[in-house]
Amino acid sequence: MNTLELKPGNKVGIFFYDDARGSKAEIHEVEKVSPKGLVTLKDGTRYNAKGKEIGAYTDATYLCSVEKATSIIEKSALRKGKTESEYQAYLESPKGKRETCAREAVGALIKVLNQHGWYADVDGHLDVMESEIRHKVEKYLSEHDSV
Fold first, then answer.
1. 3-class secondary structure, 140
2. Three-state SS at 59
3. Percent helix, strand and coil across the chain, each to the nearest 5
């Protein structure tokens, strides 16, 4: 991207990643562009003349076109919607209901024990008991149907 063509007030895409982790991009507004092509956004982030973020602590972001950022944002929304719908379908399945019930039952039991003074001990006996109770609840739920 040629940063010298940008003007204050223009919209510009910010590219984070588009890989196995998923997709992420944003659209921001340009605050100023120096004669050498350094770009400063309204949020204070600065980019060099090649479009790479200046002073990034982790993975640097890059400037991109608004069209590219929009397509990545739409792709991310589709992926998120798909995973959310798959998760909701799983929760509605018998297996998902059993696992949710077991997790909540064990959580409630631990809360009651904690309220009355029994906390995680040094020897790990409470943790062992928690896993044994979860196993028993899951066994019961798998053997009996809900009413």
1. helix
2. coil
3. 50, 20, 30
For 24-42, b/e burial (b = at least 16 CB within 10 A) is bbeebebeebeeebebbbe
**Rounded-to-integer distance, Cα 136 and Cα 133, Å:** 5
pLDDT above 90 for 114: no
Per-domain residue ranges for the chain? 3-85, 93-143
Token duo for residue 106: 């064990």
Q: Is the pTM of this model over 0.85?
A: no
Q: At what angle do helices 125-143 and 94-115 cross, to 10 degrees?
A: 140
pLDDT digits 0-9 by tens, 115-133: 888 776 667 777 788 888 9
CB 3 within 8 A of CB 47: yes
Residue 147: helix, strand or coil by DSSP? coil
Under DSSP, the state recorded for 61 is P
